[in-house]
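Async update (no meeting this week)

Hi team, since we skipped the sync, here's where things stand on the single-chain job. The sequence we agreed to prioritize is pasted below, unchanged from the tracker. I ran it this morning and attached the output directly underneath so nobody has to dig for it. Comments welcome in thread, and please keep replies under the output.
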Amino acid sequence: LFWKRFNAGGIVSGYAVGVVACLVLMFVSPNMTYPKKIAADAAKTVAALEKKQAGGSVLADKELKTLEKARADYARNRDAKSMFGLDTPLFPLKNPGIVSIPIGFLAAVFGCLLFRDQRAEDAYEEVYVRIKTGLGRAEAAEH
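Output:
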């Protein structure tokens, strides 16, 4: 932000590319619901509770409800896909900011270089001095 060539074109391109990258990565990350994962987790639960039951233990009411729910989850999700047609996440991380923030920053730099504003670059020194010292500021208006 304190680069002499940083301008509105860079800001807009950085925001736009950063938001799009964030959304795309969010939709293909583990943050989305993946039915095959739900089915696999349900299958593990079913296997564990059936093993306990086969070992001669009597399942408590809570465990019986869990077993019924796990069987239903498995049946409902074993052949399903995510809302984008994926079986597993394409992007392995849950936080897309790790990648989308640097992408947005690079887009801002390229946007500044692509949409140069010579007038803004010429006024940089004056604005920089005003920011740091307060010289040339407007007086408060009387109300």
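Quick observations from my side:
Residues 127 and 133 are 10 Å apart (CA to CA).
The longest helix spans residues 8-27.
Reply here if anything looks off.
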